[in-house]
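We were asked to recover a plausible sequence for a given structure. The inputs and outputs are reproduced exactly as logged, with field labels preserved.

PROBLEM: sequence recovery
POSITIONS: 165
GIVEN STRUCTURE:
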């Protein structure tokens, strides 16, 4: 199983968190593995269900329509410390567009059990995250302010980030 957590703000400016999960193996075993996530609290607008890989890969396509402006930054985060979380929440509160968010895709399981020297992808470990700043906006005139925000967020996260993406 792998998970992805996303930080965003609602229309009222309050921070929100969404969690996605993907388990690839026996369906009955997968239901047992995801049960603690389902029992954590009531789902707010989502569910976990079996789906085809192509459906999973295109599930968020509507959030990235043609014509939208993007400036994304990414790096490797090996320790989800209180300091890193504080920086993410600080920048989430000051983002320049309601379309912008921050995501953490967990990389572990089978990926973590491969020797780092065995493939071109060397970032392997028990709990690691692909840290992603997804700065997005609609009006090209807002590019400079959104790009500056993303770069400032990325710079503030540097003490917590590893080399590589």
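RECOVERED SEQUENCE:
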């Amino acid at each position: 199983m792998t998970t992805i957590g996303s930080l965003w703000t609602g229309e009222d400016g309050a921070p929100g968190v969404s969690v996605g999960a993907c388990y690839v193996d026996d369906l009955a075993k997968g239901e047992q593995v995801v049960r603690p996530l389902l029992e954590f609290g009531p789902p707010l607008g989502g569910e976990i269900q079996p789906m085809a890989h192509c459906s999973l890969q295109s599930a968020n396509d509507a959030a990235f329509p043609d014509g939208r402006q993007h400036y994304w930054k990414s790096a490797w985060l090996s320790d989800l410390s209180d300091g890193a979380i504080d920086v993410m929440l600080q920048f989430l509160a000051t983002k320049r567009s309601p379309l912008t968010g921050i995501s953490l895709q967990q990389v572990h399981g089978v990926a973590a059990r491969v020797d780092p020297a065995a493939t071109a992808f060397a970032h392997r470990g028990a709990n690691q995250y692909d840290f992603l700043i997804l700065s997005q906006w609609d009006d090209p005139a807002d590019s400079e302010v959104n790009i500056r925000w993303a770069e400032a967020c990325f710079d503030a996260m540097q003490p917590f980030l590893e080399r590589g993406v």
